[in-house]
Amino acid sequence: xxxxxxxxxxxxxxxxxxxxxxxxxxxxxxxxxxxxxxxxxxxxxxxxxxxxxxxxxxxxxxxxxxxxxxxxxxxxxxxxxxxxxxxxxxxxxxxxxxxxxxxx
Length: 104
Ligand code: SF4
Fold this sequence. Notes:
Elements: H1 22-26, H2 28-39, H3 44-53, E1 58-60, E2 63-66, E3 69-70, H4 80-103
Antiparallel strand pairs: 1-2, 2-3
The protein binds iron/sulfur cluster.
């Protein structure tokens, strides 16, 4: 029996992952378009949480993570309100990950 995971519903399933790393880091227009794409993804919260929990680097839920943390350099193209909201979300998810790990 096959289990369905959140990754099965990812908007980016099967697309070029360079958009979430190299091109995002070097091309602001790619970064902005990728952010918009991720913000419309049905599993953006699960994706960001998973990226924080597993200390990933690259784009997760419209946030460029550096080892699971909010990367200021690679998110600097975001407008102030969006950056502030996403940083707050990263902080909340980090706290949730810490609580989850404390209960293990
Ligand atoms: S939020 Fe972005 S990186 Fe994450 S699954 Fe969705 S499209 Fe992919």
